[in-house]
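Subject: Interface between my chains keeps coming out wrong

I've been trying for a while to get a sensible model of this assembly. When I model each chain on its own everything looks fine, but I need the whole thing in one frame so I can look at the contacts. Pasting all components below, labels as-is. Any help appreciated, I'm running out of ideas.
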Amino acid sequence: MTAPVAPPPASPTSAWSMYRALVGTGAVCGLLIVTAYQITLPRIERNKAEALERAILQVLPGAATSRTFAWVDGQRFEPLAGPARGLPVVHAGFDAAGALVGVAIEGVGMGYQDSIRLLFGYAPATEKVIGLQVLESKETPGLGDKILVDPNFLANFAQLDVAMAPSGDALANPVRAVKHGEKREEWEVDGITGATISSRAGADIVTKSATVWLPRIRADLAAFSAGGDR
Amino acid sequence: MNEAAERDAPSPTDEFVKGLWRENPVFVTVLGMCPTLAVSNTARNALAMGLATTFVLALSGAAISAVRRFVPPQVRIATYIVIIASFVTAVEYAIQALSLDLHKALGAFIALIVVNCQILGRAEAFASKNGVVVSMLDGLGTGAGFTLALACLGTVREILGSGTLFGVELFGAGFQPWVLLVLPSGGFFTLAAWLILFNYFKTRPARRAEPEAAR
Amino acid sequence: MNDEALSTIFINACLINNFVLAYFLGICPFLGISNRIETAARMGAATSFVLVVSSLCAYGVHHLLEAIGAPFLQLTAYIAVIASTVQLVEMFIKKVSPALFRALGIFLPLITTNCAVLALALFQTNRGYGLVQCLVFALGAGAGFTLALVLMAGLRERLELAELPGILRGTALALVIAGLLSITFMGFAGLSG
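Reply #2:
Try treating it as a single job with all components included. I did that and got this:
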């Protein structure tokens, strides 16, 4: 058996070769990421816009078209043309004749498992919530995620009373989730059995979001009439 | 066993197939499990996650193999991680473009593919020492084994836990699903069950050879 | 801007949605290292430290990327930050307490691939937490992780003396225990109202 041959002495790794490897890899990878981003961006934006449009028309029954409005300078609504870019927005729905059906408002809050994002439709004329759709949730499958599809739960939000208090800066009666079957008032929501926390979260998110947006909408209602052109 | 391995150098097909059974990443090495359990509550999610991981495994294996001669040992982990992260980012955007629904279901776990011990492990153990094509096959094989394991988990959890498969109702309205299985604990139990089954079949030859005198 | 209460965030991360038992994060160390209570506690402490530091760094990185308009670099930037944080923590511990460094040994570099650390950064970004909320979230996650690890180690220490069928030993058993622990922790649901 021959004696093992000693490996040739390794040349010391130069700083140059290390920089070259890191920077070179970084550059190529950066190129890959940016390319992927640019290629997929239009498709992703389109998907998101379509999904939002579908949700808006669903929470505002009777609406045929929608338009996004941004809350500008803390005092008025202005129609928004391009992407939101961090501005707070709501979406107004108009029927075929161009009359205002209602305003779709987003709400976010913590559910049982993770955040819940939902959209609800508000009709200023009757001061009621007329529809609700859960946009994003990671609630427990089979239990909490019933808030997404349970028809009885969603029916709660077809005619939900969200009248303003006389002071004009809060709801007269906050939306509250009660045990299934115990709904007595128009501002209560029949919770889903076995999904108490998710149901409660849904109601709380609506209350919170309404408390913020309803005063604003009522303050500048004129912005929404006639299809949005003042 | 060592001489046998040295005698026949593994063919490219071998590299692919070993990932499926002998060195199945989930059932044998039990690594890279974070995403395995979290997204395997429906068959569709499990399959999508498996395919995404396979994609990253194969491409990063090839890429790392391609640059292996230019990367000094001191910076190799950093380089590998950057390469893997880029592919994962690309995959995440691809999934988002293909199906927003799927992206919402998988959530942050797509991004977590980057810290899947499997990928870095294969890169270190194999791709950094072998050719591009073989490395890609190795990545595909490991990914296929991973997807297979995920599919097993996802199918069982979805059928018994929700009564559906790929969203299609299997049983009638009277079926009481075993909800526990789609909860996190169910993930642990289902994987344990598959592991026990896998171990049983793996140790069967050894146990058969054991003489009765062992009793 | 997320307006969750700090106590809710902490209890949520530590008990209700425990990172290991509910989100399946950090499984590799959970199953591989939890054989001795002392080791588990040390690993938990080291991971908590890394969680807090990388959470704060991730917060900064996220806002920096938003400012320069490069959201697609988020993942790469986060993982780079985490790897560097682990490196720094390693050097820091080595300097401050060589005994602790020796005790932790190989565990420290392993924290880099701990899904929990990256997941923490991603979750806090997705939920839009502010700086203090991030900090509390990281503390809660670390506490929960340590808790799960120590519980698992304690149970496994006891089980080493038990008679078990061959095919059940090892990881399969650890998974069954983890499943039972997960069910137990489900009892915390509703704790934050």
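Reply #3:
Confirming on my end. Residues 15-59 of chain A form the longest helix (45 residues).
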